[in-house]
Amino acid sequence: MKNLIEPFKIKMVESIRQTTAKQRLAILKTAEYNLFMVRAEDVLIDYLTDSGTGAMSDRQWGAMMIGDEAYAGSRSFFRFEKAVRNITGFKHIIPTHQGRAAERILFSIIAKSGLIIPSNTHFDTTRANIEYNKAEAIDLVIPEGKIPDLVHPFKGSMDLGKLDNLLKKHHKNIPLGMMTVTNNSGGGQPLSMENIRATSKLLHKYKVPFFLDACRFAENCWFIKTREKGYQKKGLLDIAREMFSYADGCTMSAKKDGMVNMGGFLALNDDSLAMQARNLLILTEGFPSYGGLAGRDLEAIAVGLEEVLHEDYLRYRIRTAEYMGEQLLAAGVSIIRPTGGHAVYIDAKAFYPHIPPSQYPGQTLVCELYKQGGIRGVEIGSVMFGKKNPKTGADIPAAMELVRLAFPRRVYTQSHFDFAIEVIINTFADREKAKGMKITWEPPFLRHFTAHFAPISR
Asked: Residue 265: what are its φ and ψ, rounded to 5°?
């Protein structure tokens, strides 16, 4: 059919508040021009993140009613464990309250000064947890993944040549290698099964364990099914099982492709590492059969991991991003191409060519989109991933200056997306009037969450 409808019906609605441009400017000033500091009730369409912001299904809500809240050994844990193992095949399934808790536990054990952890592209919390433990996080995405308007089916893939060179020189100092599926920081771009398999083989050649950051594993499976030769007739569950079979473990925020508002897990095969992880879990998260989650949350994740692999859902979800991307490209707005699974990434450097990276064009754009139409996105550029020169203290810009518009699952309809497209196009028409931003205060880690900004006056 020409029109692809949402594969769900709406049973409950939530009102959203309209604001004026004058009100939004005042709100931005109060929030120090940081959209993380804006109250959700003051946002019309919230594309800040797809993490934990989705709408759960009737089956998930029903499952929550039978949650077993026993402190130890609840039946909800065993249902959750079975659901995760059914997809991943891993021996040890350790629940956590969200993905970064799994990262913190893992890297507290294996990361230390002098060690290196390579990835296609580490996301912000992954990198922060590695660097907090004094190890070095290295990104080795393929060159095509750094060119926004280049069309390539698997731009999130690992650069195998660079990985091999790194392993030859430093494999004794590499406790594990990671791949983020899909590659969030690189535009939500997928990885091919061929690349995942080759990365696994290469790491294991040097006896280095291989882990996945599996937040959006289902979306990656859809791209493998639709873009990679030999997978068109395979079911998504079979594709997922093959993908996980190449890994020794994974971290996952279930707030993405677990389809829930809170939860995550660490899954792995190594008995010794699992024992250490459970000991840390007890210290900071809770007993290993709940890991900081209620039994009802574990039940909802178990259902969500099944629903996320439904083809009608993924077809609709991926097409949503494609639709917005097509409309923006037709209006002359540069984006990461092709569109990924969970978001559209606007190329802020191309949007504002007159604003240098040192003046944060991505942060300018998220502020302008909010002023124009109450839309909240997030900067993924030199605010989030810029570094400081250790000798001079000067900023080293990120490889790309992006604004991510991440779509909550099963929340917005096409009219919401059409409105957002109109706002972006109107902002693009006024692009020459925009001014850069400066940081007036920043914390030592993950500065994009709480930094203060101010417009640069000319």
From this structure: -165, 160
**Residues 366, 59: Cα–Cα separation, whole Å:** 35
Nearest CA to 299 among 69, 19, 455? 69
pLDDT (tens digit per residue) in 408-451: 999 999 999 999 999 999 999 999 999 999 999 999 888 999 99
Which domains are present in the chain?
21-50+311-455 (3.90.1150.10), 58-307 (3.40.640.10)
Considering the entire predicted model, what is its pTM?
0.93
- 133-165 pLDDT, tens digit per residue, is 999 999 999 999 999 999 999 999 999 999 999
